[in-house]
Amino acid sequence: MLDHTDQRILEELSKNSRITMKELGEKVHLTGQAAASRVAKLEDQGVIEGYTIKVNQEKLGYSIHAFITVITQSMNHQPYLTFVKTQQEIIHNYKISGDGCYLLECKFPSNERLDQFLTELNKHANYKLSIVINK
To answer: Where is the HTH asnC-type domain (predicted)?
Structure first.
């Protein structure tokens, strides 16, 4: 169970994982060394699994953000899963319950590329497309 200080550390690291241990310590009322020890402990316990960056997809030329509910056509999902592994536009592939079998979060540079993707996807599964209008 995490105490209040550990929760604050996670909150601060979630905002900025590049923060120095000294700055982190100041924010959670610890020394830099004590903050570093707490972070190391959280990493050892598997609470912190890694650090990442947030990329602005629009600035990379991917202006279309889509969620695609996927309904597989058979109980054998392997052809679909193999297809998914080869597609660079997929941000996340979630296995879900409810209306579909999977939920894809994707980014596309153009409607033409989206159409190509959906044509290929339709060889493996049916789908329902939702386009993000605004965040």
So the answer is: 2-63
> Which contacts (CB < 8 Å, 24+ apart) does range 1-8 have?
2/47, 5/29, 5/30, 5/38, 6/38, 6/42, 6/47
Q: Quick one: angle between helices 21-28 and 32-44, nearest 10?
A: 100
Q: What pLDDT, in 10s, does the model give residues 60-77?
A: 999 999 999 999 988 999
Q: Average pLDDT for residues 5-33, to the nearest whole number?
A: 96
Largest CA distance in the chain: 57
Do the bridges between strand 64-72 and strand 125-131 make them parallel or antiparallel, or are there none, so unpaired?
Answer: antiparallel
**How far, CA to CA in Å, does 98 sit from each of 48, 95, 101, 112?**
30, 10, 8, 29
Which CATH topology does 4-44 take?
A: Arc Repressor Mutant, subunit A (1.10.10)
Which CATH architecture describes the domain 58-131? 2-Layer Sandwich (3.30)
The helix (H) or strand (E) run that includes residue 88 is none
